[in-house]
Amino acid sequence: MLMVRAIIRPEKTGVVLSEMLSGGFSAVTKLDVYGRGKQKGIKVGDIYYDELPKVMLLCIVNDEDKDDVVRIVMKNAKTGEKGAFGDGRIFISPVEEAYTISTGKPGL
Fold it and tell me: 28-71 pLDDT, tens per residue?
């Protein structure tokens, strides 16, 4: 099992979640987060914003589904055809165990 964490622009959340659902990935956790990446924030006039609003989507998938989830996020979170700074990042981590609380059953 793998955890896919995608940090994306808030305005892209709806389309990414919709496409994940259409692709068969309905189990997603959404968190509102703040941070900065390589762009190091933005300056508007005299004001510098170093913590920008983003959304983090967390999804636990079987190993063989990772490429499909990454493809869906990459395609739908990108701004324009070439993308732009601040479009986000995807992180993949191994998940050693998972349990359903209501049933106590292991796995997804």
Answer: 999 999 987 777 777 788 887 778 899 999 999 999 999 999 99
| C-alpha–C-alpha distance, residues 98 and 86, integer Å | 32
Handedness of CA 36, 33, 28, 77 (dihedral sign): negative
The predicted pLDDT at position 69 comes to 98
pTM for the whole structure:
0.87
Which residue, chain included where needed, has tokens 């490429």?
67
For 2-66, the DSSP string reads EEEEEEE-GGGHHHHHHHHHHTT----EEEEEEE--TT--EEETTEEE-SEEEEEEEEEE-GGGH
Nearest to 1 by CA among 58, 85, 86: 58
Length of the chain (residues):
108
Q: How far apart are CA 56 and CA 30, in angstroms?
A: 6
